[in-house]
Amino acid sequence: xxxxxxxxxxxxxxxxxxxxxIDMDPKMRVLKPDETPLTTMTSRAESRQATREKVNWLxxxxxxxxxxxxxxxxxxxxxxxxxxxQGKIVQxxxxxxxxxxxxxxxxxxxxxxxxxxxxxIGSIAAAAVNAGDVFLVVGDAQPQGSDFxxxxxxxRVLGFNFTQTTRTTWSFTxxxxxxxxxxxxxxxxxxxRKAREHKRKWEAIGFWGMRSFSAAVPPENEPRGTAxxxxxxxxxFKRDANGPLTADFFDLFLMDVMQYGxxxxxxxxxxxxxxxxxxxNRSGMGLNYExxxxxxxxxxxxxxxxxxxxxxxxPVVVKKEWxxxxxxxxxxxxxxxxxxxxxxxxxxxxxxxxxxxxxxxxKGKDVVSAEYFTEASWEFAQERAxxxxxxxxxxx
Length: 396
Hints:
The chain is α+β, with helices and mostly antiparallel strands. The chain has helices at residues 37-44, 174-178, 188-208, 230-233, 247-257, 271-285; strands spanning 54-59, 66-68, 79-81, 94-98, 104-111, 114-121, 134-140, 157-162, 164-173, 212-217, 222-226, 238-243, 265-269, 289-290, 296-297, 300-301, 303-306, 313-318, 336-340, 344-348, 355-357, 367-380, 387-392.
């Protein structure tokens, strides 16, 4: 084929496009780098394999010691009616202290939730009881030579979750894999991106996953489990900020959650929540919001908030990807999770933890197919050891 005749200077426009070497930076710029702190932290912590498609754990707490008056009583009535079901918490010879009046009483007998009590035990005089008064069961005071008291037992609670199978796949024609490309050849280049996507799936399941199990799912008519995440398990301490997040609101939230579990708690917060927290520093909170020693916890970069109630330093991890979520109407962009890392475990099913599976193409087809495959679950024990804040808005 004859070329085109050009007179005068030859510029870049007269050159064949395919003749020019493209100036391509081989480094791939990723819009969303690997940001999966919960998965990173739990992978560094102790983990146990699951041996079934359902994982179970036992939870226990000490015998309850608070009871509440269901109705008012006069100071000399010698009677006390408790909230339905609380009569099982007390028995004869237990000592009760009214937290409102300070009066001490001794239980004489119990009939369902109706108590006969001796009032005015101790130095504080007998006083009328109001409905809603809370009593502390201080302990029992058995007389000398007493008979064996009736044993009391608080049943343990079964926690459970199901394993979930995730598969992140890719496939290229044989010809495409042979072509030289900037940034590397396929399928290796795509495999790197799929690894991030796959890990992000399990990060999302850890926070937002839903627990369910179906025995037969079309079209295969085989079982399917879904693993519940933190949102599924945490029920007791879910606080609606319904506006800007204040230091007092957050400290009161900590005061409740920190009563339970261990001190190894981490706050995973949306950028909006952390924006609110950063203003506490600017307005004079000083050391109440700072970087912890070393700036890292479980291998993840963190800041920290010092609890005014307990004095503990609470690591704060910014969940950058939640900045994409809407925060209006209490969307997920308004959320923060306070999680006790000693009560959370990632539970991969035996021999089915994350793995790269190659040669997944159909026999005889000229393609190269592969996938990242995981079957695992999450364990969230003692839901009162964790908490959720939501409904945070832009600070004023």
